[in-house]
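Slide 14.
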Amino acid sequence: MAEPVADTDPFPIVYVPAADGARIAIKRRPQPGGAPVIFLHGLAVNADLWDLPDVRGKDFYYRSLAKVLHAAGYDVWLVNLRGHGAPRMFSAPPEGQSDWCLDHFILYDLPAVVDHVLAETRRPPFVIGASMGAMTLAGYVQGARLTGDADQPRVLADAETARARQQRLAGCVFVEFPARLCWPESLYDEEGRLQWRVLLRDWWRNDGDVNHPFEMLSRWGWLHALLDAVGQIPVNWVVAEQSGEPWYRKLPAPLADGVEQVERTVVQAMLRIAGTFTGATNHRAEVMLQGRRYVLDHMKAGVLRQLTKCVRARAFVSALGTPDHVYSDHYDLVWLPTLVVQGGRDRIANAEVTRTAFFERIPAADKRLLFYEEIAHGELEAAPIASEMVYPEVRAWLDERR
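Slide 15: predicted structure.
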């Protein structure tokens, strides 16, 4: 059973036990009688990325998708996958587990969440997953399960499990889904050798058809060794508290306004640098400063190892057990109502790769692809352009099926 926990947040938080002993934190925006919607976050963030504060600027108005759907009558469930959400909404791994990967999210975390939401609401939920959350969702609905013994485990896709899981859901929304972590134009040949001429010719490119920085980082052995030694990439130094005014607001008003402007300029510059990897150009510093900063979360070594393994394999592959389970070879098991939302400038989840590797392969009779040419990775959750262009269409798709 889920365990209620007192919290200063106005919305209840419960901790749901997973089969391997993990405790998965879920925040609920309740809506009695409303269709339930489960939100799954991506890499380096937590559940609150879907539930940021409203931010109104001079030329934009950002409102989170969770709030949009809650106001429209949906029963919203925001999930922290294991290891995320510290300190106030932490999903704890099992006792003694010091590292984990996407396979754990697929095999244990999401099944526990779906079971709990079904038990509480007695209605099949929709599931919305972004990036790593979309990968978790894709593994779940194809019936991925662990077989073998503790010494020789193996992940496999099971058609019967896939059918049973999909019958328990109302539909799925895949946002910024890296169906295969590869790009139409690679920096490496089929044998994994760096193509120096390509690098020298195209080093400047930042469109969605290439991601040379990501490809190179995935192959640097010294970087992987360092990550394994450290265990994770911590982000404590940039995380802010959710409440309380910034320190500079205690200064005289003109000086405080000047410091705020400098802070906003610096953060906008940092977002542009991050766009080198993601392709993002539509983020606003105001959204980051008023909310997104406190949703940043650690990147665990096991998660990053699996993602870089996927880049090298040019597929979505498992990290647990042998032989590898190739998740991206089993999308033909997905038949439930499916919405795919992709951006044309996305440098992590290339839209054309997702279309051909996933959308065109799933046998779902009810499927739709929303494509936005000028949107990049991360912007579909936290950029004002998504509030204006994307969220109304996502809500309309859900409305038609609830």
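Speaker note: The CA atoms of residues 53 and 290 lie 7 Å apart.
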